[in-house]
Amino acid sequence: MKLYIARQPIFNKDKTLFGYELLYRNSEKNYFPGIDDELATKELASNILTEFDFSLLTNGKYGFINFTKDVLMSEIPLLFHPQNIVIEILEDVVVDEALIERIKFLKKKQYILALDDFVNDGRFERIMSFIDIIKVEYTLLSPEERKKVARRFKGVKRLVAERIETQEDLSMAMADGYDLFQGYFFSKPIIVSKNSITITQSSYFRLWREASKEAPDFNSLEEIIKVDVGLMHKLLAHLNTIMFYRGNRITSIKSALVYLGIKNTKRWIMLLLLREITSNENDELAKQSLIRAVFMEKLMEEMGRENDMQDAYLVGLLSKIDNVLEDNLNVILNELELPNKIRSALIKGDGVLGKSLECIRNYEQSNWGKVAEFAQKYGLNPEYIPSLYLFSLEYADKVFGCEALAKL
Fold first, then answer.
1. Max Cα-Cα span within the chain
2. Domains, the chain, ranges and CATH?
3. Reported pTM
4. How many Å from the N-terminal Cα to the C-terminal Cα in the chain?
5. What is the mean pLDDT of residues 261-271?
């Protein structure tokens, strides 16, 4: 699965780069896909914060991002450093007391504020003193209207002339007094894309690192989840499915994590990571991985190897991960910093974990003779293997069925 962002450069008078407007895209088609503005802003912000390197995306310059009123009032703007971002207030935002207080707060935090598609109709007079940049769709306004904006704000605000499409447009905008320029004359929005998982940059990886510490901190786990709205929803949905719901619904992040415990939290994180990598279109691959994980865990239990159950679960869950990532398995395991015995089992098939993984693969391929050899070597009843596989299958069906139900 790939993530997409479009960026369109904004230039100074001397045609040096001032920054980029960052635009939501969900495919290689270079136009806004027509989804809800608030959802687009949230997804764009989430992708930038968790998947893309902001400074690389903007070449160390400013990133202009459109904000709806609801997103502006949320904590999302504060996740960006004020030296990096220009907060664009959309033209349809209604100015009320709550918005004015929010604008004052953001200015105290030293954020740069811009008005998008400004038409000088008086709607934003109450917040004008807090505005740093005014963007005008230059070629959509009459010559008199765009000159009127320039006469009023030249030297007071930075003025961006958008929709500059010809040299003539640029020359007129400069003559009018505009000092920043954006449009097809310079460049159309350019799509930037990447695979959705660079493991070390994902929220799931940061959660995994914290949960894998010798003494995990629930407060730190909570802070990681709080900055990712989607992740927060997934946790609460997971807890409030029929798999885990026992009485009162759980609504706080920390209580959810405490209820799960570190062991189950780690499992949830790794399953999320796997599902993100495989994408919703290939959820069956994640489901097959979960079947293997449960199978191997129960196998360790039957063999009296309780200390190996957690590692066996992870080996099974990760056994298909290199099928869907461009990186090789060694790179992936290095990023996850997994113990050597898990690495050896997955890469070389070593040890009891490696042999157990081979057993489940043989079972999936109906190599019954190989399955029987494994059972004999480790003192297991061969008839136990099919019942174990059936248990694992039913468990995975239940988990994925509950999560689908939670989305309804």
1. 90
2. 2-195 (3.20.20.450), 199-407 (1.10.3210.10)
3. 0.51
4. 23
5. 78
